[in-house]
Amino acid sequence: MKEIITAQRNFFNTHATKNIHFRRAQLKTLQKALEQNEALLHEAIYNDFKKSEFDNYTTELSLLYRDIKEARKMIFKWARKENVSTGILNFPASSYIIPEPLGVCLVIGAWNYPYQLSFAPIIAAITAGNTVILKPSELPTNTAAAMAKIVKENFDPAFFTVVEGGVEETQELLKQKFDKMFFTGSTKVGKIVYKAAAENLTPVTLELGGKSPAIVTENCNLKISVKRLVWGKFLNSGQTCIAPDYVLVHKSIEKQFLEQTKKEIESQHFAFENDNYLQIINSNNFERLTKMLVKEKIYYGGETNVETRCIQPTIMQNVTLEDAVMQEEIFGPILPVITYETIEEAIALVNSLPKPLSCYLFTKSSSIKKKVLKEISFGGGAINETVMHITNENLPFGGVGHSGMGNYHGEAGFKTFTHYKSVMDKPTWLDPSIRYYPHSPFRLKLMRRFMKF
Ligand code: NAD
């Protein structure tokens, strides 16, 4: 690992990555490599957890193509030196900010959207002019191998390379000195990464998880709300960091909500062993999820198949904060439903848990909208929608508090991998003596005037 990092540091020090055309060419190479290997990428992800070609394109590759297109188009603007005003005190100087790459970066990916969560930060790092080492999650073995193969065949390892491996390899990587670490994964491992980064004062972005609520008010459009909620919850079999984790429904519409949700699950054909329905990534997670299923509280679903690692989309009712399903992020196809009577009660419940990565609100009421946005802190979210905010590259994506720090996508991603170097540039033809020693009451009087900000 030391050798790889040294090679990357040497390459970075040649300043080759500072050339905008170099960066655009690398982005183009990545795009071509992904396009040419779509069949390989699809086969790998299908073998890992039965992700369909439709889902692989819509939730992984298309977002990467979008990011590359946007970055290649906007890079000249984002990487441009920015002139800022200087003020009378420093007349006749000029001031400007130069965006500069940080250096050698480490990107650690999660398994649930293996391509998107690995390559999207890479695109941002390359656009900003860094060299990168990617450590994909070891859980989906085929996708990790496919990414390693594609990167090896298309990139100089001194610029971009993949280190495969599990916890041991990740911990070894974390001991090395990087100029930036970008981690996507659980809050628990996020703390390990943060501690390791502190050893070298390495800046870190942490894209973590948490329990993202959906609040459904009595005056929402129930049919559309449930349709969007069911889609966002059971996409990827609930293994989505921004999936609605649990639902808070107004007591007066509980019955209609439950009936409509059941109807919607059935009409979207989320059924065992069909092409839209993914496996749970491994037996550990399968077991963890099945322990959350309390028979008496299951309103719909609850069937499991240990051989295929499938869990039927499940709705749980009469859930309380004490239930196992509310003790941790679910990250699976189980939807707990909790009722509330006043919006204040719903907000208080959300605020009693760590700040979530996402929050969804289904309502027609603009006063409730305002209240929820003002009183709940969350990474990002949507109103009358789930998950889709991730598809707008103009919205920085990231968590807050326990759900993460920093953000990316679009220009936010560029900024995440960039240092903004501030420079004051002063000519020598004028050099007023007022600030130099010896001081005097008269000079102080002048300084008071000039330094009145
Ligand atoms: P994870 O934290 O178990 O693993 C993530 C990475 O950390 C993997 O590459 C793994 O090799 C490494 N790792 C695991 N244990 C480690 C240890 N002890 N020391 C060092 N490295 C270690 O997370 P996961 O299971 O891959 O993903 C699920 C979690 O990620 C969920 O909490 C989910 O919400 C979150 N997530 C967040 C986002 C986001 O964008 N914010 C996206 C996807 C997933």
Task: Report what the structure shows.
The radius of gyration is 25 Å and the shape is globular. It starts with a helix and ends with a helix. 41% of the residues lie in helices and 17% in strands. The strands form 4 sheets. A 7-stranded mixed sheet has the order 10-13-14-9-8-15-16. Strands 5-4-3-6-7-17 form a 6-stranded mixed sheet, sandwiched between helices. A 3-stranded antiparallel sheet has the order 1-2-18. With 453 residues, the protein is of the alpha/beta class. The mean pLDDT is 95. α3 (38-49) runs antiparallel to α6 (141-154). It has 2 domains: 2-208 and 402-420, Aldehyde Dehydrogenase, Chain A, domain 1 (3-Layer(aba) Sandwich); 213-398, Aldehyde Dehydrogenase, Chain A, domain 2. The protein binds nicotinamide-adenine-dinucleotide. Nicotinamide-adenine-dinucleotide is lined by residues 108-112, 117, 135, 137-138, 166-167, 170-171, 184-186, 189, 192, 207-209, 241, 329, 331, 357, 399, 404. GO terms for molecular function: aldehyde dehydrogenase (NAD+) activity. One of its GO terms (cellular component) is cytoplasm. This is Aldehyde dehydrogenase. Residues 3-423 form the Aldehyde dehydrogenase domain. InterPro entries: Ald_DH/histidinol_DH, Ald_DH_C, Ald_DH_CS_CYS, Ald_DH_CS_GLU, Ald_DH_N, Aldehyde_DH_dom, Aldehyde_DH_NAD(P).
